[in-house]
Amino acid sequence: MVSDNTRHVDIEEIERRVLVFIERELVDPGVEIQRGDDLLSGELLDSIAVLRLATFVDEEFQIGMQPSDFVIENFQTVAVLAAYVVRAGGRIHVSTEDTSREGR
Question: Does CATH place domain 6-102 in 1.10.1200.10?
Answer without folding.
Answer: yes
